[in-house]
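@channel sequence for tomorrow's demo:
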Amino acid sequence: MPETIDRARRRWITTAGAFLAAAPFARAGSAWAEPVGAPGKLPPLAAGARTGFGALRQVEAGALNVAYVDMGPATGRPVLLLHGWPYDIHSYVDVAPALAAAGYRVLIPYLRGYGQTRFLSDATPRNGQQAALAVDALDFLDALKIEKAVVAGYDWGARTACILAAIWPERCKGLVSVSGYLIGSQAANAKPLPPRAELQWWYQFYFATERGREGYARHTRDFVRLIWELASPKWHIDEATFARSAPAFDNPDHVAISIHNYRWRLSLAEGEEKYAELERALAAFPNIAVPTITLEGDANGAPHPDPAAYAGKFIGRYEHRLITGGIGHNLPQEAPQAFAQAVVDVDAF
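structure tokens (generated this afternoon):
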């Protein structure tokens, strides 16, 4: 068994045992530090006020060489911000500077299949299942020697953040999740939805076909732009905003990761055996005990659960916030003030 797989499996066995016993393991050498200053109410910030980040950093983490933003004081409390599909790190272009100015160390990695993040080996499966993305995030924190962080995200990023909070709560100071509890399972996804709900998942059925895979590969940017417009019908997406994110989808593994993610959900593609135990734990839909704020935009055009359906999954201190003003699926970019404030507030819980 290759050392990287063996190490990952040993770590999962250890953490799974801790999770099932409801007694998270402790680790020495914490990188947790007190923040610079005492953030409370953030000053006003406007969506679209900033246009980009400085130079990205790179770190080898698990199966990946990860490209990421590292903003704010090195001694600040870490905040891990995770983007979704089909978006990129620019969802946090306004959120990150606000949190950095408040004294946080803000970390924003490109997920596998996005931007400058690359697999270390051509032999690694281009796997998009939820467990693989969660282990990527854990490997990223380990590589930077971050013991504990506020974790926050939307879409795929929210699902990953929820998994971290559920399975490795000792690594999470708090959770901010757009659209709430998003942990899934193949068994749950096998159950048919009412027709109107199925219609919202049209792209998942398209991706189940070879025509869909080829279509996404040929027309990636047009497809992404369409998803943005459908998911955020009241968000004015100017050409410059889209152009900043578009290169992230030129990653050579982007199509493969995207297609595998949606085919895996429908049991049309296999996952990796090394994640089987983690997926079994996730299929039990574990509760989340870390302090949590969930957010929802009032104009989210993407499939999303009703807040009442998931409120009971958060058994620690919990608050839900509806963000008004025509806010769609990409909430951090459309409503950066609300998202950044939620990070600060959950940190203070």
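heads up for whoever presents: The domain at 51-348 is CATH 3.40.50.1820 (Rossmann fold).
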